[in-house]
From TrEMBL:
<keyword id="KW-0472">Membrane</keyword>
<dbReference type="Pfam" id="PF23678">
    <property type="entry name" value="YqhI"/>
</dbReference>
<dbReference type="InterPro" id="IPR057802">
    <property type="entry name" value="YqhI_dom"/>
</dbReference>
<feature type="domain" description="YqhI">
    <location>
        <begin position="1"/>
        <end position="34"/>
    </location>
</feature>
<protein>
    <recommendedName>
        <fullName>YqhI domain-containing protein</fullName>
    </recommendedName>
</protein>
<keyword id="KW-0812">Transmembrane</keyword>
<feature type="transmembrane region" description="Helical">
    <location>
        <begin position="34"/>
        <end position="52"/>
    </location>
</feature>
<keyword id="KW-1133">Transmembrane helix</keyword>
Amino acid sequence: MSKTKVNEIPQEAFNWYDEYAHGGMDRRAFMAKLGTLVAVGYSLTVLTSALLPNLSSG
């Protein structure tokens, strides 16, 4: 399985994450926007793992 590199993720996803992380958007709206990228061929798992921190590790 090939891994998606960070530079392959659209800039919009990073912008949406920034807005979400700083309280400008709730999680539901953030995930809905990411869902629009899934429609054009991105994996939601890849997007969320690249954008959201892994709080369970450590």
